[in-house]
Design goal:
homodimer, EC 1.1.1.3 (chains A, B), Homoserine dehydrogenase (chains A, B), Dihydrodipicolinate Reductase, domain 2, NADP (chains A, B), 3 domains, six-stranded parallel β-sheet, HDH_CS (chains A, B), 18 strands, oxidoreductase (chains A, B), twelve-stranded mixed β-sheet, Alpha-Beta Plaits
Chain lengths: 429, 429
C-alpha cells in the first residue's frame, strides 16, 4: 500500500459534508485498505468559518474555496455545496488544476453535465455523482456500468422523499395536501420553502440525469416535462383506491417504441397497488428499470439525509481515488446515441379524468363523442349523480398526451361539462 | 475510438452463452461505443460441436477449450460452463496467457475465489463475476464499489428463484411442498434434479460470495450453514400467517455486534409480511443490504434465466474491456478485514417452535422450565388441545442457535412432549 496520502478538498460542510468528513476520520483504515492508500482531508471550504465543526481541525477550514481548489496538490474535490454557482466555477477550476471531482449536485449536473464532463475529459479527470440521484441508492453506477451491455427502455421512479412522505400520508390517513405537507414540515421532511420538492423541480433534475445515463444521450433539466403535486386531493386518492391504485410523484424516462427518441417527465400518477413502487413508504426512494436483457430491476433505499448521501459520496471517492492510483479514469459521459428528446405531447399513456357534469340525459353520449373525435379510446366510465349535478370518471386506453389535451380542451367547451375536477395519468401497468 | 477489436473467447454456449453471443452481435455498435473499441467473438468452446447454434459462425466453434484460452490473442475469456472443473483450470490458464475473465460461476467462486483472485492479480488481470449472484441484479458492483466507503452489517436476501417460486406457490395456494415442486418442474422453474436449489446449495454458494464482498473478508462455501426447504409444510405456512408472516428461503450474512466476526447461513425463515422481501413473488430475487451510513437498501430483479444473466455478463465485459484499454484493472479481491467466520451456534435470532404434547395439566410449566433452564426467553405461547393431544406453539425472544438447540434436545426428552413438529427461525424484524 502507498503510504503518501491522497488529498481531498471538501467544498461545503453542512449535513452531508460534515458526515463525509466524519466517516473519512472514523473509517480511515477501511478507506485506506479499499483504496490502496490513505486519504487525508486537506481543506474544508465553508461560508461561516466561525461555526464549530466537531471532529474537523479548524486549521483546515477556509472561506476561500477558489484558493483551495487551485492549490494544485488536491487529488479529489468533493462538492456538496449544491446550486449552480459557485459550484460550477469551482468544479471547472478543480479540473483545470488537476483534481478529480465527486459531486452530489443534481441541479448543476442536470443543467450543465455535458459541459462539466467535457472539462473533466479534457484534463483526464473523473467526474462522479452517485449522490446526486436518490441518495444512497446505487443507481448511477448500475446504470452506467452494470447495465452497460444491455439496452434500457424505461426508468420509472420515486426520486423525491419529501413528496413521497406527503403522498403516503395522504394515502394512509385520508389527509388533504396541506395537512400532510404541514406534518412533513413539522417532522423535518419538508423544507420551510417546499417549492423545489412539491413542484417537482428536484425530481426533474434527477430525471434528466437518469435519462441521460440510461439512454446514452443528453437530457437537460429543461427537456423534462414537470407537474407538481400540490393539486392532488383526498378525492383523487379515493378515486385511485376504487381503481386498486395509489398516487405517487413519478419520474418517468422512456425510449419511444421506434427507439429514435426519448421522453422524460415528472408528474403525479396513479399506479396499481400490485406494482412494487406502490409499497414504497415514507421518505424512501425506489427506481424501477426495464431493459431488454435484464428485464425489470428495482433499486430501493433512503433517498436523502446526511448519512445516506455521504455513503454515496464516499463510494465515489473510493472509486475516484483508485482510478487516480491506477493513472486511469472511469467511464465518462456516454452520449453517443444522441437521441431526440420528444415533447410531452408525444408521450403515450393512460388517463383518469374526473368531470363535473350536468345530471341530464345525453351527457355521457356528448362526452364520449368528444373522446372519440380526438382518437382517445375509453376503457371505463363511472357516473354518479347528486342534486342535478353528476360526476363522470373516465379511464382511457393508451393515448398520446397531445390527444388527451385536445380532448380536455374540447370537453371544457361543452355546456354540460361544469368543470374538469382532475386529470391524472395511470402508469406502471 | 480504437478500430482494432478486443477479442472475446466464450467458454460454454448453453442458455446463457448463446444469449451473450447473440447480444454481442445485435448490440455490437452500442458495445463498441460504450467500450471505446469494437469487441469480436474470437472463439466458442462447446462440448457438442455438431449442435446448430443460430447466429454463431461455425468456424469459431471448438471443443478444445484449453487451446482457445492459450491462444494468446484473447483479451477476455467469458466462462459460462459452471461447476468446478474444467472451469477452474481454464480460468487459471486464461490468466496465465494474458486474458481477463468474466465468470458466472457461483460454485467455483464460492469454493476457490481467493485462489482465482490471486492468479488474476499475479498476472495483472481482472476477474469479474456479477452474474454469479442473483442474475441480472447489480449486486456485486454496488457492494464492492458503491458501498466501498460504507460499512455493511447485514445482507439478507432471496437469492434462489426456484425455491422462491415453490414457497410463493405454497403461500398463495396452500399447496404442500411436493405439489408446488411438481408445478415448478412442469413450468421449467425447477430442474429434473432439484437438489442444488431446494437443499440450499445454490443459495449457500451465493451467500459465501456476498458475505466475502460485503465484509471484506474470506467466506467459503463450507463456512456457510445450510438447511434446505423440503421440510417446510402447509402447516408451517398456516402458523406463519397467524403471526403475520410468510416463509422464505433466506441467505443471511451478518457481522457480529462486536464487529470481530461474521456468520453466513441459508435456511427457511419466517419474515413479517411488512418486510419488503415478503412481497417478492415467483422466481424473482431480492437482496436487502444494511449498512452504517446508507441504511437499508434493496435490490430486486430476475435472479436467473439466459437473458438476465447475459445482461450481467455483458456489463462485466464492458467494464473489463474498458479497463484493458486503459491498461488498468478494477478492484480485485478485498479481504483485508480477515474476520473469523463463526459457527451457526453463535447466530442470534428468534424462533417459532411447534410441539406436539400430551393434553394434561402441567405440560406448559414443564416446557417453560426447559426454555428457562437454557436461557431462552419466551415471547408468546399458543396452546391448542384436541383428543388428549395438544399442540404448543412457542415464539421466543432473541437467543443463540446453540441455546435453542440445547432447548430442543431437552424438550425431546420430556415424556409429555410427543414430538417437535417444526422449528423455524424468525427474521427481518
Amino acid at each position: 500500500m502507498r503510504t503518501r496520502p491522497l488529498k481531498v478538498a471538501l467544498l461545503g460542510c453542512g449535513v452531508v459534508g460534515s458526515e463525509v468528513a466524519r466517516i473519512m476520520t472514523t473509517h480511515a483504515d477501511d478507506l485506506a485498505a479499499r483504496i490502496g492508500a490513505p486519504v487525508e482531508l486537506a481543506g474544508v471550504a465553508v461560508r461561516r468559518p466561525s461555526k464549530v465543526r466537531e471532529g474537523i481541525d479548524p486549521a483546515l477550514v477556509t472561506t476561500d474555496a477558489t484558493a483551495l481548489v487551485k492549490r494544485g496538490d488536491i487529488d479529489v474535490v468533493v462538492e456538496v455545496i449544491g446550486g449552480i454557482e459557485p459550484a460550477r466555477g469551482l468544479i471547472t477550476t478543480a479540473f483545470q488544476h488537476g483534481a478529480s471531482v465527486v459531486s452530489a449536485n443534481k441541479a448543476l449536473l442536470a443543467q450543465d453535465g455535458a459541459a462539466l464532463h467535457a472539462v473533466a475529459e479534457e484534463h483526464g479527470r473523473d467526474l462522479y455523482y452517485e449522490a446526486a440521484v436518490a441518495g444512497a441508492i446505487p443507481l448511477i453506477r448500475p446504470l452506467r456500468e452494470s447495465l452497460a451491455g444491455d439496452k434500457v427502455n424505461r426508468v420509472l421512479g420515486i426520486v423525491n422523499g419529501t413528496t413521497n412522505f406527503i403522498l403516503d400520508k395522504m394515502d394512509s390517513t385520508g389527509a388533504g395536501y396541506q395537512e400532510a405537507l404541514d406534518e412533513a414540515t413539522a417532522l423535518g421532511y419538508a423544507e420551510a420553502d417546499p417549492t423545489a420538492d412539491v413542484e417537482g423541480f428536484d425530481a426533474a433534475a434527477k430525471a434528466a440525469i437518469l435519462a441521460g445515463i440510461a439512454f446514452h444521450t443528453r437530457v437537460r433539466f429543461d427537456d423534462v416535462y414537470r407537474e407538481g403535486m400540490a393539486e392532488v386531493t383526498a378525492a383523487d386518492f379515493r378515486s385511485a383506491k376504487e381503481m386498486g391504485c395509489t398516487i405517487k410523484l413519478l419520474a418517468i424516462c422512456e425510449r419511444a417504441a421506434d427507439g429514435g427518441s426519448v421522453t422524460a417527465r415528472v408528474h403525479p400518477a396513479m399506479i396499481p397497488l400490485s406494482h412494487p413502487l406502490a409499497s414504497v413508504r415514507g421518505a424512501y426512494n425506489a427506481v424501477f428499470v426495464e431493459s431488454d436483457a435484464a428485464g425489470q430491476l428495482m433499486f430501493y433505499g433512503p433517498g436523502a439525509g446526511g448519512s445516506p448521501t455521504a455513503s454515496a459520496v464516499l463510494g465515489d471517492l473510493v472509486a475516484v481515488c483508485r482510478n487516480r492510483l491506477n493513472g486511469a479514469t472511469g467511464p465518462g459521459e456516454s452520449a453517443y446515441a444522441a437521441l431526440t428528446v420528444s415533447s410531452m405531447g408525444e408521450v403515450v399513456t393512460r388517463y383518469h379524468i374526473s368531470l363535473d357534469v350536468a345530471d341530464k340525459p345525453g351527457v355521457l353520449a356528448q362526452v364520449a363523442t368528444v373522446f372519440a373525435e380526438h382518437g382517445v379510446s375509453i376503457d371505463t366510465v363511472r357516473q354518479q349523480g347528486k342534486d342535478g349535478e353528476a360526476s363522470l370518471v373516465v379511464v382511457t386506453h393508451r393515448a398520446s398526451d397531445a390527444s388527451l389535451s385536445g380532448t380536455v380542451e374540447a370537453l371544457r367547451k361543452l355546456d354540460t361539462v361544469r368543470g374538469v375536477a382532475s386529470i391524472m395519468r395511470v402508469e406502471g401497468e
